[in-house]
Amino acid sequence: MFKTVLFPVDQSRESRQAAETVATLVKTHQSRLIILSVVEPPEAEVPSTDAMESPQVVAELLQNAKKLFSQQGIEAEALEREGKPAFTICDVADELDADLIIMGCRGLGLTHEGTSESVTNRVISLSPCPVLVIP
Fold first, then answer.
1. Quick one: 93 exposed, middle or buried, by C-beta within 10 A (0-12, 13-18, 19+)?
2. Where are the domains positioned within the chain?
3. What is the per-residue pLDDT across 42-96, written as a single tens digit (0 to 9) for each?
4. What pTM was estimated for this model as a whole?
5. Which CATH architecture has domain 4-41+50-134?
6. Tens digit of pLDDT for each residue in 86-135?
7. CA dist 98 to 32, 41, 78, 94, Å?
């Protein structure tokens, strides 16, 4: 049913919590697992404190994710891309012909403005395939 599963990761607690569901689903469906981390390009002339803009941090994050799945008997492929997270996630899903995107939910509040700005909501709106959001 789900031949290719895309799992975008970042350093959030929600992303780590979603990994258990990803492992269960991938094992059940014997899916190909692609772990994706998106590095946001730094804003011009503004010093960044965002760890997801550091290639070293992203490389370590992907290695740790691969190791976590490997310990559960799952061979995962890791991809690193640069760009705006929601758009990049959807582009990669389209390129890989992914059957499912699984991601953690990071709410920004209950206001309409806050929820419409989240990466998760943008992925849901733009995705070429179903999106499973893990709360």
1. buried
2. 4-41+50-134
3. 765 555 555 556 778 888 999 999 999 999 999 999 999 999 999 999 999 999 9
4. 0.86
5. 3-Layer(aba) Sandwich (3.40)
6. 999 999 999 999 999 999 887 444 444 455 578 999 999 999 999 999 98
7. 9, 25, 14, 6
